[in-house]
Amino acid sequence: VISPNGASGTRVIAVDAMGGDHAPLEILKGAIEANARGVSVVLVGQPRVIAPVLEQLNSRLPIVEAEAAIAMDEPVGLALRRERSSLRVAAGLVSSGDAHAVVSAGNSAAIMGIAYQAWKMLPGIDRPAFGGFLPARTGPVFVLDIGANTTVKPSHLVQFAVMGSVYVQLSQGTENPRLALLSNGTEDSKGTKEVKQANETLRKLDLNFLGNVEGNQVFEGIADVIVCDGFSGNILLKGAEGVVNEIFDMLRTELTKDLMSKVAGAALTPAFTRIKRRVDYEEYGGVPVLGVNEIMINCHGKSHAKAITNAILLADRMAKERLPQRIREALLEDTGDASRRRRLVRALHLSHE
Amino acid sequence: VISPNGASGTRVIAVDAMGGDHAPLEILKGAIEANARGVSVVLVGQPRVIAPVLEQLNSRLPIVEAEAAIAMDEPVGLALRRERSSLRVAAGLVSSGDAHAVVSAGNSAAIMGIAYQAWKMLPGIDRPAFGGFLPARTGPVFVLDIGANTTVKPSHLVQFAVMGSVYVQLSQGTENPRLALLSNGTEDSKGTKEVKQANETLRKLDLNFLGNVEGNQVFEGIADVIVCDGFSGNILLKGAEGVVNEIFDMLRTELTKDLMSKVAGAALTPAFTRIKRRVDYEEYGGVPVLGVNEIMINCHGKSHAKAITNAILLADRMAKERLPQRIREALLEDTGDASRRRRLVRALHLSHE
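Predict the joint structure of the above. Result:
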């Protein structure tokens, strides 16, 4: 049993110390900072790799031993067979009740696979999805799937919609979140076969479904939850990241062109910092794996300490709020409206329990 | 026969005066400006709608009569059956040799359908595609398809690649353009079934094929030509448009927060204008329909005069360069390398002529 080392009560966050491009140093720094902010943390990984770095950093965070790290490009089938990988051991700590969430910057496919393997799916959900927040005019917009499922069936899109809607309601306190399907046109007739069928089903459910939206409307904040397959979601997200980087790069170039620009640019530094913060993924920390019975946060492989700290704080908030349990309850909730319940059951393949 | 009214010699650009959200006023303004810059223009549409506006604008540009406009949301099947729509009449002028390109801000699906119906496909190309330039760090990047084909077969992606490569070589003068497939990961194993198969085929062709790229890499300028299905291309393009709009909106807000910011912001106006120009679709004018035997430029439905002028200038340049003919020649070109030719023929289903 791991004794809690933070102010967060009995909740413990298991951190995969071996995953990510900057593991273990940046992961440990991020974990130490989260712990300093009151969250109980346990590091999972190979002690001979972690312990020396931890000592350098003057920290005594507990280590749970694992035998191997999963490589960033390791095929998921292989990764799933390693019984003592840091990720697998971390997930096991949650299964046994010794920890309450996992944070990892490792191989995304393995993260998804291990969450599924160790914890199983929520009732009515067939596939796990990655959800993530994008900054829009009116505030953060939740997009899912952003990379777990390259191709999807219409029923998966419907499940993402229900799950995303419940997640945003619980995590952001948004009553009746506005929901939309990402498509190449706003008309119901636009989109892939899967989008069109999902649109038809969603129109029949008692969700706040707006219909299809295009990429630009996502950033206008037209909806609170944007549903798409993982291929399109990845393109939307990475494309946006690319545009933001290029615009800031152009600004840097423009603002050092002459003395006048340099002076003006210097005066605007706080403004640029505020904007940059709104669009910086490190501020969001990581994205939850949705659809499984426990909490797993996946950080960008390139994460530095700040992203790890923010991801651990997010995991702790989600654990405190018991989010998977509440999503489960919402999915199974009897609203008293029998026909609504029947439609949801049909859409989600839920059993009538 | 239409007598040329510009300095561009015998080339005439047929402009659909009825298509677009701001037709006919903005279309006419744009056409008049392009004509003032030396391009011969003929307007196509209903004289009773166009003539009064043209008179207000003190212009005597020739009008070719058409009976109907195609509505922006008109089903393409219906639109294709109208024999005397402005778009159909404009395409007919090119078929008869009276004009050399068409520019329209109308219904994109109808534009694509009519170009296909009137002009047929280039040898070896099964489907027309919309290509468009996105601004990247190193200059414009050509992306296709950006909306014509919601779903594609692997062979279509390969054809887009060959066509895009030739187009960029001819229109930009880029020798041996760097080519990439848009995917949700850089590894060959990433992507939809279609992307994976297209990747495999492209690896075997003598093109400068880099492999898969992610959305952010598009804007880093890692490749000159980005190939994708029309659904993903639309999401990349519209998403980028949305991010640009939101960042400039945030800048506007930040730069009017206090006096210091206002003064600094005013000093930076020229810098912002330069950046805005690089990312503004109105500067690009419109996107060509690739794969057909003649030149059709599709403008954004929301186009104002400036976009129309730029689209007409683009159409005129393409006509001057005889681009479709040269793409055709490049597709049929005998490079003397028999095995390369065989691979291309196989990839494009070209007949051995």
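Residues 338 and 344 of chain B are 10 Å apart (CA to CA).
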